[in-house]
User: Fold this.
Amino acid sequence: MCQLLGMNCNTPTDICFSFTGFQQRGGGTDVHADGWGIAFFEGKGVRLFLDPQPSVRSSIAELVRNYPIHSLNVIAHIRKATQGAVSLENTHPFMRELWGRYWVFAHNGNLPQFQPALDGDFVPVGNTDSELIFCWMLQSLRQRFGDAPPSREALFSALHELTCPLAGMGIFNYLLSNGDCLFAHSSTELNYIIRHAPFNVAHLKDEDVMVDFSQVTTPNDRVAIIATQPLTDNEPWVNMPAGTLWMFHDGEAVIQLDTQHSPVSSLDGV
Assistant:
């Protein structure tokens, strides 16, 4: 299966440290060698880098690793193909426009039985189940809310309703962002950490690299990092229980709901 990496912050931040470890899992320390991609939200725009080459051998990945792009929301993906050829059009994350904003989606899993009808507003370019799911989700949101974008809370509730039936059809870990917040669904495995003052030294698991965040942050900074597997070996990562949907905003986990049963909790202020 694939691996996911996301970042949500309260101030624009670069993801170079986390991406340094994540890059190694694309054909180096792990087997996800069927392409990689990363999307950075910047204001109304998105910088999207895609490469069907393994990230550990990708010159584009080296550029991203050494280029401190500052963003409030980032989604990255390294692919182990299950559906669709290894090609640029099948490389995550995928991007579409809805309500005058770019949306970005990356998926780790496999839903071979999900074949929804599409009305033509959002159409896959490649042939992965992931891009099909993304198009269906955006189509469903537009059908529900029309031309008026919903509140953040109403959007989360709608995504919860859309995610619940798919969660029982197969492996469905995903990250989704519209540049305002970041949504994360843990179907089998996702973890997160929130870095805030007082900041400490972090050490990567996949490469012998460390950083003292107290030297590169301000006391007001708050950064949430979400990853399929923890990226560091000396920090208290939180496991996101299987079957939960989360919303991150301003570097905090603000809402969590169970996609298998009933609501779990609201995490305002955590």
